[in-house]
Design a protein that fits this description.
about 280 residues, MetI-like fold, 2 domains, about 0% strand
Length: about 280
């Protein structure tokens, strides 16, 4: 009886801590949305007003009309979608060759690929810009997309670790039945790797959605801006319109939150299973 009481008390204490931490983490998001719905005179008062009154839903309409939000949204979705496609196709193929096919020098080339992760983006930024400038890709989406079709090392590593957890007996049985490596990759490995592929796709989407430096370097035409660059230009042109800036920022954050809640079960499963075998 006493042991049962101690377990219940421990659970209650754990829930109190978790709820308190969740409130701390969610408060900045609440403050963002609250500020977006406030009249200007309520933004900087002290003590702060937690619940706006009256609620100004029109701030969202004004924010969308202040700058080409939907054009920037379309540009961002194009870049994110193409990167997700490129990463899943290229990284899964390369990870399959590193994990399921034995070929001379495989481990050496795998470690060489991993060594590229150690190079920070700041080191390769200028050489890449010079290359893209010489081939005429500046002010296009190509520098922000093409690299994803050449198997980024980090995502290739994650998928390789997951592929190693799939029993090799499945591949051997398929080979006995006359299945090729491409058949095994397409019909066995990919269907069993949906959690890992979803995790890699979600990481890629979020990374490109929030990317500021890449579009800042390569995109010069305002009609090609992404949402990250668009928010910066909004701040430059309408710096005093803080309520509208908060409204535009919350519109930029909401798709990522919705995407996570729609895919959280697959995402958590992929995080749990990826990388558990060396």
């Amino acid at each position: 009886m006493r042991k049962s009481f101690q377990i219940k008390l421990r659970n209650i204490f754990s829930y109190i801590i978790l709820i308190s931490l969740s409130i701390i983490f969610i408060f900045p998001l609440y403050w963002l949305v609250s500020s977006a719905l406030k009249p200007d005179e309520q933004l900087f008062v002290f003590p702060p007003i937690l619940i706006p009154h009256p609620v100004k839903w029109e701030n969202y309409i004004k924010a969308v009309n202040y700058f080409p939000f939907f054009r920037y949204l379309l540009n961002t979705l194009i870049i994110c979608g193409m990167n997700v496609l490129g990463v899943i196709l290229s990284c899964s193929l390369v990870a399959y060759s590193f994990s399921r096919i034995k070929w001379p020098g495989r481990d050496l080339f795998f470690f060489l690929m991993l060594s590229t992760i150690m190079l920070p983006y700041q080191v390769t930024m200028i050489p890449l810009f010079v290359i893209f400038q010489r081939i005429g890709w500046i002010n296009t989406f190509k520098p922000l997309i093409i690299g994803s079709f050449f198997a980024p090392a980090y995502y290739t590593f994650l998928l390789r670790q997951f592929f190693l957890t799939i029993p090799f007996e499945l591949s051997e049985a398929a080979k006995v039945d006359g299945g090729s490596e491409l058949f095994i990759y397409r019909s066995i490995i990919l269907p069993l790797s949906k959690p890992a592929l979803a995790t890699v796709g979600l990481f890629t989407f979020i990374g490109n959605w929030n990317d500021f430096l890449g579009p800042l370097i390569y995109l010069h035409d305002e009609s090609k801006y992404t949402l990250a660059i668009g928010l910066q230009s909004f701040l430059t042109e309408h710096g005093a319109e803080w309520a509208l800036l908060m409204a535009a920022s919350s519109l930029t954050v909401f798709p990522i939150i919705v995407l996570f809640f729609l895919t959280q079960r697959t995402f958590i499963q992929g995080i749990t299973l990826t990388g558990i075998k060396g």
